[in-house]
Amino acid sequence: MATVHLRIGDLVWGKLGRYPPWPGKIVSPPKDLKKPRGKKCHFVKFFGTEDHAWIKVEQLKPYHAHKEEMIKINKGKRFQQAVDAVEDFLKKSKGKEQNSEGKGDAKGKKTPKKPLKILDEDDEDLSALRDPSEKPVKDDPHFHHFLLSQSEKDTASTSIQAADSTAINGSITPTDKRIGFLGLGLMGSGIVSNLLKMGHVVTVWNRTAEKCDLFIQEGARLGRTPAEVASMCDITFSCVSDPKAARDLVLGPSGVLQGIRPGKCYVEMSTVDPETITELSQVITSRGGRFLEAPVAGSQQLSNDGMLVILAAGDRTVYEDCSSCFQAMGKTSFFLGEAGNAARMMLILNMVQGSFMATIAEGLTLAQATGQSQQTFLDILCQGQMASTFVDQKCQNILQGNFKPDYYLKHIQKDLRLAISMGDMANHPTPMAAAANEVYKRAKALDQSDNDISAVYRAYIH
Question: Where are the beta strands (DSSP E) in 20-172?
Fold first, then answer.
């Protein structure tokens, strides 16, 4: 088979991680975005989305030669919109080309044909690469780049950086630093598994020691106490359930603080309130340690798939030292400035998600109460502007009565409570979150705490 040579400006089909081949255009990368080391790759801007990434040459195919093949294997609505966006782009490009051929100079001579403009990241013409009427939704694989484009509108005082997609493309060079990880719950288990798969040296600890066994078999080392892990490792991550657990892990008997020495790094990945982050940051740095908060947006499945979104804040040098770790566990990461900012952003995100889930559950139960088909309600919902993987999966779980936890209901209720408290401190109203919080409290009273957040549905039927 002849080798296909691709260059900037070519239309292609690009394979990004576990997602189907998607139409895109090879463009010039941003000046500050370095090409991953290893195999040859091109920087691709995908149509119908805000996504762009380095893609290996072997994961790229010429657009026109493989168009019919790709259309046959992918019938999704978003995919079709992306293909339509390519065709619109081609029509506009052809029109511009014809116009340039027909124009003459002041003396009536035809001007020479100009090559098609190569689209760069800052080009206004990039809007042609997506459907302007549609914004990505949270569970869309391209949502993180939509977030980044919005974040760039923030003030210059907050430094925001998104990691590249080398984790998805499998070209991670693991750090030579010794990594510790405390907490092997729904999120922590997937994170540690991906760290090990990508070649990191990891020492683990969990309150229930038996949970460590599987990871020891996969090559992890065992730490007897949080203090021992912190003293043995260069960077220690922790991911536990709530502010009390986070404080106890650091300040309690044989806690992390006893193992912190000058230069040691501690990364708090738990979703907690900003006040807890401030306290932990102060005690860690008082011992000469370096502190970073890095809560994660996602679920157990996304954690297992290494597709989390990491929100980091605090010591920027620690963030940079954690680069290969974040690439292993997530699809992107953001640096949000001083410690506490990531906690604030994470609580806002979970407040929105929790309120949205309660509203969806309310809609499903109202449909049933008024004699409407819940499945038809879902089918209609998934054809409209609110369509997303999140909505489809959670509603299908509800209709099937499957509430196996992907994200604990008790944790989203905790996050709603913390977000409401944060709103109170900022003197900002949070009436929607307050109403949703009451629904989750009722679901907890019905013994749904350890079920998935979709089990909030049961609060409406009892």
Answer: 22-26, 41-46, 52-56, 60-62
Q: Pairing relation of β-strands 221-222 and 265-268?
A: unpaired
Amino acid at 104: G
pLDDT in tens, 241-280: 999 999 999 999 999 999 999 999 999 999 999 999 999 9
**Any alpha helices (H) in 401-454, and if so which ranges?**
409-425, 431-445
> For the chain, what is the mean pLDDT?
84
CA–CA dist 79, 74 (Å, integer)? 7
Tokens encoding 110: 């035809």
What is d(CA 286, CA 282) in angstroms, rounded to the nearest whole number?
6
Indicate the pairing of strand 265-268 with strand 290-293. parallel
Beta bridge partners of 60: 14
- Tell me the three state secondary structure of residue 238: strand
Give the bridge partners for 110, in sequence order: 104
The sign of the CA dihedral 76, 80, 85, 90 is positive
Identify which of 333, 427, 356, 360 has the alpha carbon closest to the alpha carbon of residue 144: 333
In whole angstroms, give the CA distance from residue 200 to residue 176.
8
Q: Model confidence over 188-209: pLDDT tens digits?
A: 999 999 999 999 999 999 999 9
Which pair of tokens denotes residue 350?
């979970």
